[in-house]
Design a protein that fits this description.
By secondary structure, the chain is mainly alpha-helical. It has 19 helices and no strands. Helix 4 packs parallel to helix 12, helix 6 runs antiparallel to helix 13 and helix 13 crosses helix 14.
């Protein structure tokens, strides 16, 4: 196998690992059970659109010949957009590192403040070691982890289907939920868009970084499309697994999971040792699958943040990794409190509606067209119109809903406003400061 084919395979799995997060394993089944086949169809429609968006982002960076951070700083003159994306990544890592490690540790340390902090410190330490010690092998490690994830999810699904009896108490109820045809509603469409956005992983500049790594000998369309397709398949398999995992439980547990959001999913993970007390092997398999899903999303996301810091601060890889994960831990100490953790999750959820637009900016930018002659195609302009027409109203609505809840969620809403406002309004001040 030549180098291009080998790395094409690696990159396919790296995209699959990045897009297959805890949300795919633990939250996508929630969405599907709540909205049934209608919701699944809407989700797949937007997943296809967002996959195309990801492809053209990577291709634009490849054809520009610029490193993605350099593209924003020197050509687009929008350094604050990259800063906003970096901030979103740091906040995401401060929350997501804890949730990933809690998949394994929650039965021991619980899901309270202390448990979250312990889990977070351990996960950040692991990420730091990989980023600083693997160095040029980091991408290969990410890809290898993703391959193991795919195998793990397939094995786990087969094991659950074969071991859980088809007469399990609430298996029929769960199956009915995923096969139901529900009326199309605005709430369903919004939920589908949000899940598809996470399903592709827009808003974290991953595809811009990917384009910087590749050259025109790589087929970005094949790499990204296959990677996202693997993620979609794993989401379907994960739904089957979760349905069978909850089957021996009670209807109350099932409903709490379906309508409980991410915190409900975490609580369910904590209850699985008792729900699956008679199926220890299944418990281990599902825990490993979810943990791997978290790790394979964290590493590429952290790599993007590391590269942004490394370029902008003119520091080495080790120091950039220390800054990135140090900031994530600094924010992570207070957001180990469950209510603050939920608030910061909401900040990320709101912000990515807008950072996804920042990420698409090079595709439609006049500056890139003027300097490199890369005029956006009609399809790219249509995709951009859909992206802007969908994400801006959704982001504003999510901000309104979060602020309306009050309490700690106000912190999340304010943080999201700061992140987005920075990306929109801070470009000129940052440029002037750099010139000085």
């Amino acid at each position: 196998m030549d180098e291009i084919r080998k790395w094409t395979l690696y990159l396919m799995f790296m995209v699959a690992g990045f897009t297959t997060g805890i949300g795919t394993i633990g939250l996508f089944p929630q969405f599907w059970m709540e909205y049934g086949l209608t919701g699944l169809a809407v989700y797949l429609f937007f997943l296809a659109i967002f996959t195309y968006v990801a492809i053209v982002e990577a291709e634009k960076v490849i054809r520009s010949g610029y490193y993605f951070v350099e593209l924003y700083n020197k050509i687009l003159k929008k350094p604050a957009m990259i800063l906003a994306i970096l901030t979103t990544i740091i906040v995401f890592l401060s929350y997501y590192t804890a949730n990933t490690m809690l998949v394994l540790l929650s039965p021991v340390v619980g899901t309270g403040t202390v448990g979250r902090l312990i889990a977070k410190v351990l996960m950040i330490a692991i990420v730091f070691i990989v980023l600083t010690r693997a160095k040029e092998k980091t991408f290969a490690i990410m890809s290898a982890g993703s391959m193991i994830l795919v195998i793990s999810v397939i094995v786990t699904t087969i094991a659950f289907v074969s071991k859980i009896p088809p007469t399990a108490a609430f298996l029929g109820m769960a199956k009915h939920m995923i096969m139901s045809r529900n009326p199309l509603t605005v709430r369903m469409i919004m939920a589908a868009i949000e899940k598809a956005l996470y399903g592709v992983g827009l808003g974290f500049a991953f595809y811009l970084m990917l384009g910087s790594f590749m050259n025109e000998r790589f087929n970005a369309r094949l790499i990204i499309a296959v990677g996202v397709l693997i993620q979609a398949i794993l989401g379907i398999l994960a739904t089957i697994t979760i349905v069978y995992a909850i089957a021996p439980s009670t209807p109350g547990d099932l409903l709490k999971y379906v309508y409980g959001g991410e915190e409900g999913a975490i609580r369910l993970m904590g209850q699985l040792p008792s729900i699956l007390a008679d199926y220890r092997l299944l418990l281990i398999l599902i825990a490993v699958s979810i943990f791997l899903a978290g790790v394979t999303s964290i590493l590429p996301t952290a790599e993007v943040g590391l590269q942004i810091l490394e370029f902008n601060m003119k520091v080495g890889r080790n120091r950039a990794a220390a800054y990135l994960l140090g900031l994530a831990l600094l924010i992570g100490i207070p957001d180990s409190v469950p209510k603050l953790a939920q608030a910061l999750l909401l900040a990320v959820s709101i912000s990515i509606f807008f950072t996804a637009l920042f990420e698409y900016y090079p595709v439609i930018s006049k500056e890139v067209e003027r300097i490199k002659g890369l005029k956006p195609t009609t399809a790219q302009l249509i995709a951009g119109a859909i992206l802007f027409g969908v994400l801006i109203p959704m982001g504003l609505y999510a901000l309104y809903e979060t602020a309306k809840k009050g309490g700690a969620d106000i912190i999340g809403a304010l943080l999201a406003v700061i992140i987005v406002a920075t990306g929109i309004f801070a470009n000129n001040p940052i440029k002037k400061k750099k010139e000085e």
